[in-house]
Specification:
With 281 residues, the protein is an alpha/beta fold. It has helices at residues 9-13, 67-75, 96-111, 130-140, 170-174, 184-190, 194-197, 222-233, 258-270, and strands at 22-25, 33-37, 47-51, 79-83, 124-128, 160-164, 208-214, 241-244. It has an eight-stranded mixed β-sheet, sandwiched between helices. A hairpin with a 7-residue loop joins strand 1 and strand 2 (33-37). The termini are far apart.
């Protein structure tokens, strides 16, 4: 039995908060912005597209909860494109949240080079909790039907999607009772159109997918990730899941946790980069 207490949100959010290098707009709404994190040294740098969670609700969380792992990646030579978006309580849901995430991610391809990023190399999307659902959705988006407004004309190609304690199954979420995120938010994220919004029911894309879960996570326990992996296995798709013992939901985005160390290693490996020591800024 592990008696070490798991992290709470104040354990992370009361730390000194690192700052991004720039914030850019992709729309007129105050939430339609991206924080850009640029490593030291000569580019172009590899970069990941990052999507925060918060039960798909702006009132619960915004992009800055990801600042600590964004800073950690920056210190390891990897840039970050940290997306903000409208939650279901701020004009999002279906279709607004998807339109925001798609537009912000596509902007990475169009404008990422201006910030010193390699936009044509390996593209990784990573998301925590509800953001894990959005990262997986982004990876599946190119497989939507041509002419679908959510797909768009030229959707970004994602090579690797990483779900950090994600909530990929909107149908299950909308039917849940007593879940920390409630049932209304996942229902608003689908509005009954699960084939275009819920990764388990969307067309299979070409991206690799990975899940990282923690065994003491009470928001998204490993059973949530296991159900998604099992559903994909029935379609002939392997989605590996790494479960870290003794850690909870917050540790997934804490830069000094065992679970984050595994995620960082997976990112660096996918990018073909050594797990070098971090550089100071």
């Amino acid at each position: 039995m592990n008696d070490k207490p798991i992290m709470t949100w104040p354990d992370l959010l009361t730390r000194a908060k690192p700052a991004s290098d720039a914030t850019i707009r992709y729309g007129e709404d105050p939430l339609q912005i991206v924080d850009v994190w640029v490593p030291k040294g000569q580019g172009p740098h590899p970069a990941v597209i990052m999507i925060h969670g918060g039960c798909w609700q702006t009132s619960v969380a915004e992009r800055d909860i990801m600042n600590w792992i964004a800073d950690d990646l920056r210190s390891h030579g990897v840039g970050v494109w940290n997306i903000e978006y409208r939650g279901v309580d701020r004009g999002g849901g279906m279709p607004g949240t998807y339109e925001d995430v798609a537009r912000a991610a596509d902007l990475f391809v169009a404008d990422g080079a201006k910030h010193g990023f390699d936009t044509g190399g390996i593209r990784i999307a990573i998301g925590h909790s509800a953001g894990g659902h959005l990262a997986l959705w982004l990876a599946r988006r190119p497989a939507l039907a041509a002419g679908d407004a959510l797909r768009g004309a030229d959707p970004i190609r994602i090579d690797l999607a990483i779900s950090q304690g994600g909530l990929p199954d909107l149908r299950a979420g909308a039917a849940s009772i007593g879940h920390a995120c409630g049932a209304d938010a996942p229902a608003a994220m689908a509005r009954g159109d699960y084939a275009r919004t819920s990764p388990p029911e969307m067309p299979v894309g070409t991206a690799r997918e990975m899940q990282f879960n923690n065994d003491r996570d009470h928001v998204t326990p490993p059973a949530t990730g296991a159900a998604y992996s099992a559903a994909m296995a029935k379609l002939g798709v392997t989605v590996p899941m790494e479960v870290t013992p003794g850690e909870g939901h917050v540790e997934l985005i804490a830069p000094d946790s065992a679970s984050w160390a595994k995620q960082r290693a997976a990112i660096l490996t996918a990018l073909g980069r050594p797990a070098a020591a971090p550089t100071s800024r």
